[in-house]
Amino acid sequence: MNTFEPSSVFGFFFEICKIPRESGNEAGMTHYLEQFAKDRGLEYQTDNTGNVVIRKAASVGKEKSPGVILQSHTDMVCEKNTDTEFDFSKDAIQCYVEDGWLKAKGTTLGADDGIGVAASLAVLDDDTLEHGPLECLFTVSEETGLNGARAVAPGFLRGTILLNLDSEDEGEVFIGCAGGIDTTARFRYQTVPAPSDGYTALKVSITGGTGGHSGDEIHKDLCNAVQQLARFFWNAQQKFNLKIHSVSGGNKRNAIAREASAVCILSQKDESAFAQLFLKMSGDWEKEHRHTDPDLESRLTPVPMPHTVIEEKTAARIVAALYACPHGVLAMSKEIPGLVETSTNLASVSMDPEHQIIRVGSSQRSAINSARRNAANRIESLFVLAGAEVSHDGEYPGWEPNPDSPILKVCVEAYKQLFNTPVKVRAIHAGLECGIFLDAFPHLDMISFGPTLKGVHSPAERLDIASTGKFWTLLLQILKMV
Fold it and tell me: Of 341, 366, 396, which one is at a domain's C-terminal end?
């Protein structure tokens, strides 16, 4: 695989793929970056959070150029298919190529933002490149609330231009992004003994959803497995005396839920009618999402009878709340055609049997601070009505576009020179660390760009190989022109 071009970028990317780097577990990456700097005699600094900045002097003749910061995050979203045996705490990502795309076997690839990290390392490693004073900032825990960016202290950065290498559409440069907030609902529940004589236990499961980034792909009407599961159970509760033993689905707050399942108990005399309802409704949602989620699969499987079930009224409230919870686009931008302005993602539902709590995770995004908070409050009010305790955390600001940015003008000119076509200037609904950096370092002039990635935050994540070469060429040209 090291024969790919640019070979230096892919070489470092494949090295990174060997290092566990789930959000909160980036110590291995921090050590790798420190050793990288030591081996090359480069100045580096590590803060208490695990962020690393590596500095390199300007090339000859560029000493008076403004300082440029290349910024990327070291963590990745760790998602895998149910049938994939993989331990993100120790196993290396297994890469393969298909139709010009780099993919991973049954897991997320980690090119978000491993390819940005790799490009920064390739720049630092090459003494033939032309650039001014250079800093490469590698932040941690971006995917779980941009925590690394929040911790960057005054004095940690010296440059005045920041190139964020965490965008996912080659041929586009981003100058603004949405801010976000996480909303978590907690239902406290009691269990009661499960009925046994004359009853049967069944597992309802939905798998094979496309999933994806809850910001970049929220407008695509992808199947949300948690919501479809709730849809079925709400309808089933109207027809059958249904008991629920367990429910789970989704995983990360910033990923659209691909899979969900629940174990339920019902009278044996109702089993045939229950199966018929499931067959009809699963056919409905599979038809509704046949274009967006072609691999969607719904199953009804007999399982051993559990000893307990969730108390009936609580189970009904949870199902109703999950079914009613909004998911998707709430408003489109009135200023930028085609840009999602405000959205909400019903991300996950999970059980904590030890503490008898069911958690529902969600996240809200908006380029407008008041709209973002309003969306979070709406989700809170729904779950409060259903009897849950609700909290908000992880809020981060948006990045207000600056169409007069000097570095944007350099990027536009560089792209035109290289590829004889205009680059598209856009804002993005996904969250980037730029908003946080602008709050802390208001003097920074920033843009964000990268190669083409699809299906991020899901095992469908893939990196377009050809676009990586164009991304690399553009990066070098910008560094040369600054």
Answer: 396
Q: Which of 26, 112, 142, 293 is catalytic?
A: 142
Q: Is 242 helix (H, G, I), strand (E, B) or coil?
A: coil
The rounded distance, in Å, linking the Cα atoms of 127 and 122 is: 10
- Write the single-letter amino acid at 82: T
Do 195 and 329 belong to one domain?
yes
DSSP code per residue over 267-313: EGGGHHHHHHHHHHHHHHHHHHTTTT-TT-EEEEEE-PPPSEEE-HH
Helix, strand, coil share of the chain (percent; to 5): 30, 30, 40
For 20-79, what is each residue's pLDDT tens digit? Answer: 999 999 999 999 999 999 999 999 999 999 999 999 999 999 999 999 999 999 999 999
Looking at the structure, tell me whether residues 102 and 46 fall in a common domain: yes
Question: What does the alpha-carbon distance between residue 218 and residue 326 come to, in Å, rounded to a whole number?
Answer: 12
- Tens of pLDDT, residue by residue over 400-417, are 889 899 999 999 999 999
Judge if 203 and 338 occupy the same domain: yes
142 is catalytic: yes
Q: What is the DSSP letter of 57?
A: P
Q: Is the peptide bond before 193 cis (omega within 30 degrees of 0)?
A: no
Q: What is the pLDDT of residues 110-132, one digit of tens each?
A: 999 999 999 999 999 999 999 99
Cα–Cα distance between 171 and 450 in angstroms, integer?
9
Mean pLDDT of the residues in the chain = 95
Q: Which residues pair with 352 in a beta bridge?
A: 357
Query: Residue 464, preceding bond cis, omega within 30 degrees?
Result: no
Per the CB < 8 A criterion, the answer to whether 211 and 450 are in contact is: no
The one catalytic residue among 75, 216, 217, 259: 75
Beta bridge partners of 80: 107
pLDDT at 254: 87
Q: Which domain range does residue 136 map to?
A: 7-178+398-481
How much is the CA Rg of the chain, to the nearest whole Å? 24
Are residues 364 and 431 in contact, defined by beta-carbon separation less than 8 angstroms? no
